[in-house]
Amino acid sequence: MSGVGGYAPATVRALARTIRSRARRVQNRFRRASVILLYHRVAEGVADPWSLCVTPANFHAQAAVLAGRGVVPLDALADDLALGRRRRALAVTFDDGYADVATTAWPVLRAHAIPTTLFVSTGTLDGGAEFWWDELERIVLGSPALPDSLWIDLGGEAFSWLPTSAGARRQLYFALHQRIGRLAVAVRTRVLADLRDWAGVPGGCRDTHRPLAADEVRALARESALHLGAHGVSHSYLGALPADEQQREIQASKATLEAIAGAPVERFSYPHGDCAPRTVAYVRAAGFRLACGTACAPVFTDADLFDLPRVEVPNLPGPAFARWLDEWVG
């Protein structure tokens, strides 16, 4: 099969990617765009259906690249925006609050003097439970065998499933994720318990998927180059929740982290990047000074301080990461 101008389709796609990356690089250099990098986990050998993990080896190499480029605190980047300063800068953020941030990622970041903002979901800080999407993965994807069918009440919505293909489990996982993440916390807890019973999976928390404990957050908060941000309590899609529950999620996560850190927490990250207009209004009213989303884009001088875009970092070795970074910062 021939493509444009007689070139093979694969060649055409490669050329198109090259043109897009060069255009993005030129645009970013011209507009002096900054970039906020988004990490979640530094781990390997674990189930990773959302591609959240960067391996420790790759993270070491990426940190060396970042140290050579220079990284500023997220607050400094926000100050530039607020004052209209045109400066091209890099900032590093982590979302969720996995324990491997403390055990694996932060020692590397500290060794390279890379300032980092860590957005923590506070609902798991008392220990003993995984993040809800990890528990769902353990039930649906990690079980040796599942029953032949599923019927379950998802907060008033009947949901049924029959496996029809080799990829049926992954399809089930993603379908349940989209629904469960929008449930009220009490309903979600009941649904996950029902799913555990259905699959014959016990409760508990795998050490490989352990969230940070409160004492670990307290220790991290004492690090001068690590800055805490709130990420809700239950990592729900906030826009799907009633107004009073949204406000509780936002305000309670802030209050919990401030009590742990003994200092104001003025940064927020929208779980799943879900920032409906009223959610943004609640974040402003709660006393935050900035908030991050997940829109994959550079930060230009006209960016909204309460919907800062970020670019999720792929699991790339050092040289490939450097080339990828060049596309974003020019």
Class per helix and strand makeup: alpha/beta
Specify the biggest β-sheet: 5 strands, parallel
Strand order across the biggest sheet? Answer: 8-5-4-1-11
CATH architectural category of the largest domain: Alpha-Beta Barrel
Number of extended strands: 11
Which structural traits does this protein have?
11 helices, two-stranded parallel ribbon, 330 residues, 11 strands, 44% helix, TIM Barrel, 3 domains
Description of the molecule:
The chain has three domains: 31 residues, no CATH class; 212 residues, Glycoside hydrolase/deacetylase (TIM Barrel, Alpha-Beta Barrel), CATH 3.20.20.370; 68 residues, no CATH class. It has a five-stranded parallel beta sheet with strand order 8-5-4-1-11. Strands 2-3 form a two-stranded parallel sheet. It contains eleven helices and eleven strands. The mean pLDDT is 91. A hairpin with a 2-residue loop joins strand 6 and strand 7.
Give the topology, please.
Blueprint: H1 9-31, E1 35-39, E2 41-42, E3 53-54, H2 56-69, H3 74-83, E4 90-94, H4 99-111, E5 116-120, H5 132-140, E6 150-154, E7 157-161, H6 168-180, H7 185-199, H8 214-221, E8 226-230, H9 243-261, E9 267-269, H10 277-285, E10 290-292, E11 311-312, H11 318-329
Parallel strand pairs: 1-4, 1-11, 2-3, 4-5, 5-8, 9-10
Antiparallel strand pairs: 6-7
Short overview:
The chain is of the alpha/beta class. 44% of the residues lie in helices and 13% in strands.
